Amino acid sequence: MRIDPSNFNPIQYWAFGMQMVALNFQIPDIPLAINTAMFQQTRNCGFMLKPRSHWDVSDPLYQRFNPLSKDNESSCALLLSLDVGLLCLATKIFCPFHSSSTFL
Questions:
Q1: In this structure, are residues 53 and 62 in contact, taking their beta carbons and an 8 Å threshold?
Q2: What share of the chain is helix, strand, coil (3-state, %, to 5)?
Q3: Tens of pLDDT along 50-92?
């Protein structure tokens, strides 16, 4: 049972094809940043193809896949690459006009 407002890691849910993960958007932490990055990788549509074991009949794990299983044989790996952008804003406002008025 969870009693704190922290967010859980959404990567395991994205890896299993679940995009609707309930996160607390009032807590700006790493799991929320990961979830936002996963949406941005898909151009904010949130669609990711489910793992092959969910939809391919020829996959050996088809209908045997259990995301809650601790068995390493049935686990899926997720390769995550993030592009990080940095936006810098100036802390001073430079006025091109030299006036003594407080209104620009």
A1: yes
A2: 25, 0, 75
A3: 777 777 888 887 877 666 666 645 455 556 677 777 676 655 6
> Over the stretch 8-58, which tens digit does the pLDDT of each residue have?
888 777 777 676 667 888 888 888 888 888 888 777 776 677 777 777 888
CB 76 within 8 A of CB 17: no
Q: State CA 59 to chain mean position distance.
A: 27
Domain locations along the chain: 1-104
